[in-house]
Structures are given as C-alpha cells and as structure tokens.
Amino acid sequence: MSEVVFVDSAGGETRVNAEDGETLMAIAVRSGIDGIVAQCGGALACGTCHCYIDEAHLDLLPPPSQEEADMIEFVMEPKPNSRLSCQLLMSAATDGMRVIVPDNQH
C-alpha cells in the first residue's frame, strides 16, 4: 500500500491510500477527486483523466506509451509532466507521489 497526494488548483491537498496495481484514475474516482473526470473509464479514449505528476516521481514511472502520448497532445495545457491517470499503476515507487489536478478537463 502507498499514499498519493492529489493537489488542486488552489493548492489544497487530499491524501489517499492506494493499493499496488490500482490505477491512479481509479483511486481519484473512488476518492471523489474533483477534476479527474474519467469519462471513458480508463479506455485511453478521452484524456479527461489528465494530470501532472510532480517532478520528484516523474522519472520513477514508466514512460508513456505511444497511445498515451498521442492522447496527451489533445488535452488542455499539456506539459512535459502530463500523464493520463488511467495509465499509471500504483507501486512502491509511487508512494508519496504528488499529483496536480488541472483546472479543466475537455
């Protein structure tokens, strides 16, 4: 088990527990995190689970697949640390990871 810290646009933090192997998107939805819409339910078809990963953990994650990278191109305000939360599996490496939730998902 690990902990994930979701940070909203006002800087407010929500700390939640995560099971190894669970997707970041599932954790956000289960925890009622505003801003992680997840319209496609994790099918890598919409980009509404977009988030920014804090630099401290970014290099500890596997790189995005080509499909994820292609979808990120269409999200609002993509950045070098943009990821789709449906594609990120929790593990010991993600313990304490800070996830910045964008203001808008389209």
TrEMBL record:
GO terms for biological process: P450-containing electron transport chain. GO terms for molecular function: 2 iron, 2 sulfur cluster binding; electron transfer activity; metal ion binding. Gene3D superfamilies: 3.10.20.30. Pfam families: Fer2. This is 2Fe-2S ferredoxin. Residues 2-105 form the 2Fe-2S ferredoxin-type domain. Keywords: 2Fe-2S, Iron, Iron-sulfur, Metal-binding. PANTHER family: 2FE-2S FERREDOXIN-TYPE DOMAIN-CONTAINING PROTEIN, FERREDOXIN/ADRENODOXIN. CDD domains: fer2. The lineage of its organism: Bacteria, Pseudomonadati, Pseudomonadota, Alphaproteobacteria, Hyphomicrobiales.
